[in-house]
């Protein structure tokens, strides 16, 4: 019989459709062969540094100069940015409507000079360098008082929104806290006000006690199939130690996060035949004293990563109601991914 399950953080309900239950191999025809013609031009490849905007930051070999070869991870402004760093916010009204200039930041993290390597191919050492770059860019942009929220994300595959094959992720910093983020922040605060505990810490403790939805765990991180999963094989990665800010991650935690991320991505790639996916780093907004700032955010929010394989598409029911239909119970997804050998 189908089940309705409630996301304890934001109060969202999902339908676990046990009567439509799907096996992993039933998604095979929906998998895309994410390849590209080797003869096509790629601006992200080593040697084409002059074909991108000037780099903002890079990890380089042998102290090589900016915008030249010999780099390992490279950050450039998006050539077609959603928001631009230059200018003033200029909040204003237009009758009953509110507006402001499109101020923010939109950066591309080119994860490797090698055109044919994808994230699940990286070594732990190289993945750690990517996480370090994420941290560096986040801390730098937090110095800009115009910016309220920093979202680091990856689109892998055309079904997930990727327009280029070369492995890359993105960062967008916004001058407002997005509504979806506010829902999560408010849910965490409400739970903390009621129980005086972090909701994410409680989720971790309950998942460890039940042992039904843990895919992988190491010293500092846990990967779970969330109880109210919206999508088949949705995976959350949470730090075991409470912290609201992703960019507070230390050197040892970076190593441990690279291990759990590569483990999960390899399992998804092998077990689900190279699915398109998105991953999102959920972190606390930039905090400085202002009207509406709440003092408990350091205690009530807990940064985490969501990995969402694109195996189903929301339809009219989902868009109209906000209720997602998931044909793979998270317990089944967890059991399957645990058994995938890498």
Q: What does the largest sheet look like?
A: 10 strands, antiparallel
Query: Tell me, what's the shape?
Result: globular
User: What is the overall number of helices?
Assistant: 7
- N- to C-terminal separation? 34 Å
* Low-confidence parts: none
Taking Cα atoms only, what radius of gyration do you get, to the nearest Å? 20 Å
The mean pLDDT is: 91
* Order of strands in the sheet with most strands: 3-4-7-9-8-13-14-12-11-10
Q: Quick one: how many beta strands? A: 15
Helix content: 25-40%
- Report strand %: 15-25%
Order of helices and strands: EEEEEEEHEEHHEEEHEHEHEH
State the secondary-structure class: alpha+beta
Task: Give the topology, please.
Layout: E1 3-6, E2 13-16, E3 57-60, E4 71-77, E5 92-94, E6 97-99, E7 105-110, H1 124-141, E8 149-156, E9 168-174, H2 179-195, H3 199-210, E10 214-217, E11 221-224, E12 235-239, H4 251-271, E13 277-282, H5 297-300, E14 304-309, H6 316-321, E15 324-326, H7 330-339
Parallel strand pairs: 2-15
Antiparallel strand pairs: 1-2, 3-4, 4-7, 5-6, 7-9, 8-9, 8-13, 10-11, 11-12, 12-14, 13-14
Helix pairs in contact: 1-4
Entry keywords:
single chain, 342 residues, alpha+beta, ten-stranded antiparallel sheet, three-stranded mixed sheet, 7 helices, 15 strands
Structural description of this entry:
The chain has 342 residues and is an alpha+beta fold. It is built from seven helices and 15 strands. It has helices at 124-141, 179-195, 199-210, 251-271, 297-300, 316-321, 330-339; strands at 3-6, 13-16, 57-60, 71-77, 92-94, 97-99, 105-110, 149-156, 168-174, 214-217, 221-224, 235-239, 277-282, 304-309, 324-326. It has a ten-stranded antiparallel beta sheet, sandwiched between helices. It has a three-stranded mixed beta sheet with strand order 1-2-15. It has a two-stranded antiparallel sheet with strand order 5-6. A hairpin with a 2-residue loop joins strand 5 (92-94) and strand 6. The model has no long low-confidence stretch (mean pLDDT 91).
């Amino acid at each position: 019989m189908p089940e309705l399950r409630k996301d304890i953080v934001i109060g969202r309900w999902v339908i676990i459709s046990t009567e439509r239950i799907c096996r992993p191999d039933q998604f095979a025809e929906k998998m895309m062969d994410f390849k590209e013609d080797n003869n096509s031009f790629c601006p992200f490849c080593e040697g084409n540094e002059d074909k991108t905007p000037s780099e903002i930051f890079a990890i380089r070999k042998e102290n090589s100069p900016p915008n030249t070869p010999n780099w390992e991870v490279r950050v450039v402004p998006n050539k077609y940015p959603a928001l631009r760093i230059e200018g003033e916010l200029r909040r204003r009204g237009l009758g009953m409507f509110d507006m402001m200039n499109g101020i923010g930041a939109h950066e591309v993290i080119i994860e490797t000079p090698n055109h044919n390597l994808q994230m699940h191919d990286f070594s732990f050492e190289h993945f750690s360098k990517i996480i370090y770059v994420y941290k560096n860019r986040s801390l730098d942009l937090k110095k800009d008082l115009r910016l309220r929220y920093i979202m680091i994300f990856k689109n892998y595959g055309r079904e997930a929104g990727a327009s280029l094959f070369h492995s890359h992720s993105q960062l967008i910093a916004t001058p407002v806290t997005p509504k979806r983020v506010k829902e999560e922040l408010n849910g965490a605060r409400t739970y903390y006000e009621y129980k005086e505990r972090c909701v994410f810490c409680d989720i971790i403790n309950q998942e460890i006690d039940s042992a039904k939805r843990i895919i992988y765990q190491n010293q500092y991180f846990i990967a779970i199939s969330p109880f109210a999963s919206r999508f088949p094989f949705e995976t959350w990665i949470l730090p075991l130690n409470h912290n609201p800010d992703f960019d507070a991650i230390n050197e040892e935690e970076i190593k441990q996060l690279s291990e759990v991320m590569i483990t999960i991505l390899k399992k998804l790639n092998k077990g689900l035949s190279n699915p398109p996916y998105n991953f999102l780093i959920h972190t606390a907004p930039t905090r400085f004293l202002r009207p509406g700032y709440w003092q408990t955010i350091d205690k009530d929010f807990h940064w985490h990563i969501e990995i969402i394989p694109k195996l189903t598409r929301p339809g009219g029911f989902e868009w109209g109601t906000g209720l997602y239909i998931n044909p793979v119970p998270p317990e089944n997804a967890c059991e399957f991914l645990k058994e995938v050998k890498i």
